[in-house]
Design brief:
Elements: H1 3-7, E1 9-20, E2 23-32, E3 43-44, E4 47-49, H2 52-61, H3 67-84, E5 90-91, H4 96-107, H5 112-119, E6 122-123, E7 129-134, E8 146-154, E9 168-174, H6 176-184, H7 192-201, H8 207-214, E10 221-222, E11 225-229, E12 232-236, E13 247-249
Parallel strand pairs: 1-8, 7-10
Antiparallel strand pairs: 1-2, 1-4, 2-3, 2-9, 5-6, 7-8, 11-12, 12-13
Helix pairs in contact: 2-3, 4-5, 6-7
InterPro entries: NUDIX_hydrolase-like_dom_sf, NUDIX_hydrolase_dom, NUDT19
GO molecular function: hydrolase activity
Domain Nudix hydrolase: 8-196
């Protein structure tokens, strides 16, 4: 095992999908603050590091699910509440006032487990569908090394997303193709894993299609590598995991 694998921090990201009749589904995108240490100013999906409280709650609710997997799903749920004010993956009645109390409680330092007990809620880990898992390449000089699991989830009805004004400065709904076009026009930017995931998401027009697509491929850890192709150094990923684009010239790659 390499040193970076030992010191990497588990993280989780939630790809929230909102269907639109007759049009490609939209994905919730967040623009990170330029002051952040990781992916400053980039367009990302909501998410963040797995915390001790996530593991504690996983020990209570994981059942037959692997504890690390359960903790990652809980982290994705928690981070989405914190960053976007959107409640996904909870069982029980969550009205706008409850969603606000959950978000405020997390901001005040309470764990998600404490807040669920207070409001009579439970987690529904099956609401999150495994989509991918990424880890920086061994040679990457990144500021923080995250072992990140990506999940798909259907957007809840009747909830409005809102920025937290600390970690992010803007959020919006957009099809994966439109977000890529936005970046191509210079009105936003994404780091390498986000770009590859958006390209993959753009293959499917709806949440159901995305869920079916995700079920066709293993969730193997992706660790990009460098390779010379046609005389140009590329950053590459495996070609058996559902990604339509599996390499990019190193000079074009955006990093975290």
């Amino acid at each position: 095992m390499t040193d970076d694998a030992v010191t990497s921090r588990p993280a989780a990201t939630l790809i929230i999908v909102r269907d639109r009749p007759g049009r490609p589904a939209e994905i919730l995108m967040i623009e990170r603050s330029a002051k952040m240490a990781f992916a400053a100013g980039a367009l990302v999906f909501p998410g963040g590091g797995v915390e001790a409280g996530d593991h504690a709650l996983a020990a209570r609710v994981a059942g037959a699910m692997d504890r690390d997997e359960a903790a990652a799903r809980i982290a994705a749920i928690r981070e989405t509440i914190e960053e976007a004010g959107v409640v996904i993956g909870l069982a029980g009645v969550v009205d706008p006032s409850t969603a606000l109390r959950l978000r405020d409680g997390l901001r005040d330092g309470r764990t998600l487990g404490e807040l669920l007990d207070r409001h009579g809620l439970a987690v529904n880990l099956d609401a999150l569908i495994p989509f991918a898992r990424w880890h920086p390449a061994p040679f990457e000089a990144v500021r923080r090394v995250f072992d990140t699991r990506f999940y798909l989830a259907r957007a809840p009805e009747g909830q409005a997303a809102s920025v937290d004004s600390t970690e992010n400065v803007r959020l919006f709904w957009s099809s994966a193709a439109d977000t890529l076009a936005l970046c191509q026009s210079g009105q936003g930017h994404v780091i390498f894993p986000t770009r590859r995931n958006l390209e993959r998401l753009a293959l499917s027009p709806s949440f159901e299609a995305l869920a079916a697509h995700a079920g066709c491929f293993p969730v193997d850890m992706i660790r990009p590598w460098r390779e010379m192709r046609d005389g140009t150094l590329h950053l590459c990923i495996p070609d058996h995991l559902g990604y339509p684009v599996t390499s990019e010239p190193m000079e074009q790659v955006r990093r975290g």
